[in-house]
Amino acid sequence: MAKPELLEQIYTIVAQIPEGRVTTYGRVAKMTEGATPRMVGSAMRHLPSGHGLPWHRVINASLAVTEHGGAVRQREKLRGEGVAFDKRGRVNSELLWP
């Protein structure tokens, strides 16, 4: 798990992702002072309940939702914001933030 200061950076970045847009674990990591994409994924997995962060807007480098226990819910939340997926389950790169 990332150090508290990296977690704070990760959460601050994720909080800024606009509705209807997505970013990748790697992009979030590059905006921090030393986090890796894996650390970002771990931070998203370990969010406390009731956090309010738009965790669902963080996807993998292939522009798809990573398969995990919350993947179905993540896709539903993204679709609810108008994010469409192609036949291969990928998001259009035009929706990438920033």
Per-chain topology:
Blueprint: H1 4-15, E1 23-24, H2 25-30, H3 37-45, E2 58-59, H4 71-80
Parallel strand pairs: 1-2
InterPro entries: ATL_DNA_repair (IPR052520), MethylDNA_cys_MeTrfase_DNA-bd (IPR014048), MethylDNA_cys_MeTrfase_DNAb (IPR036217), WH-like_DNA-bd_sf (IPR036388)
Pfam family, one: DNA_binding_1
Organism: Modicisalibacter muralis
Brief overview:
The protein has 98 residues and is mainly alpha-helical.
Regarding quaternary structure, how should these chains be classified?
A: single chain
Here the CATH topology equals Arc Repressor Mutant, subunit A
Q: How much of the polypeptide forms β-strand, as a percent range? A: under 5%
Span of the ends, CA to CA? 25 Å
Assign the CATH superfamily: Winged helix-like DNA-binding domain superfamily/Winged helix DNA-binding domain
Characterize the biggest β-sheet.
Answer: 2 strands, parallel
Helix content: 25-40%
| Number of helices, where a helix is a run of at least 4 consecutive DSSP H or I residues | 4
Biggest sheet: strands side by side, in what order? 1-2
**How many structural domains are formed by the residues?**
1
Task: Please describe what this structure looks like.
This protein has 98 residues and is mainly alpha-helical. The protein has one domain (4-95): Winged helix-like DNA-binding domain superfamily/Winged helix DNA-binding domain (Arc Repressor Mutant, subunit A), CATH 1.10.10.10. It is 38% helix and 4% strand. It has a two-stranded parallel sheet. The longest helix has 12 residues, at 4-15. It is globular, with a radius of gyration of 13 Å. The chain starts with a helix and ends in an 18-residue tail after the last helix. The mean pLDDT is 96.
